[in-house]
Structure prediction request, 212 residues.
Amino acid sequence: MRIVLFGPPGVGKGSQAQFLSERENVVHISTGILLRRAIRSESELGLQAAAYVEQGKLVPGPLVRSLAEGAMADCNYDRFVLDGYPRTIEQADWLAEFLESHHTRLNTVLSLVVSNQDIVDRLSKRRINRITGENYHLDFKPPPADIEPGIIVQRNDDLPEAILHRLEIYQESTFPVQEYYRSLGLLKEIEGKGTFEEVYQRILTAIMNSLK
Ligand code: AMP
Prediction:
């Protein structure tokens, strides 16, 4: 089972990939997580990547490539879900070449789709305790009533305008890569609206169909 998962910020892609990895015995390979880990450990690669990640810019491809390829090698080129890689056509080509050189290929590429309005609704209800950093959601996990209201704040990047900007960047940057996979007949779009479990079941069904 070799999968790539796409999804805009706020759709719960990372949590779905994590859940899938626990339930289905696949390795969740998130280049964002691997990069943040490399940065924390102050490895050579982490030091080179730090400034890019801090500014939300794409890290130079060869650095990300070596992390992703190392992680795929660790799981013997199978039973993985890639999250955050590939992000460019060049990376998609590297991935295809890499898998081919190990006599394998992707089974499917899944893209979680949710309307911008739904994402704005979801993310603009997030709140954070500015002292402890704990996250809340006005509908699903409201802050305790006895907390001083001034401590519960909204992150600047969770304001509707900032969310729309992040979505625009996501759409512009992933569009070519998703089209590349569509042209290969590998892309499957999945409705991302609904409960976590509903979306998970759709993901699982799409994966099972791709293995037939
Ligand atoms: P993410 O957690 O996937 O949002 O990634 C966090 C940050 O890591 C991104 O903003 C980029 O700076 C960097 N990053 C993650 N994956 C890649 C990739 N495939 N190519 C380049 N940069 C990446």
User: Anything to note?
Assistant: The beta strands are 2-6, 27-30, 80-83, 108-113, 126-129, 135-137, 152-153, 187-191. Residues 2-115+187-210 form a domain with the Rossmann fold fold (CATH 3.40.50.300). The chain has a mean pLDDT of 93. The radius of gyration is 18 Å.
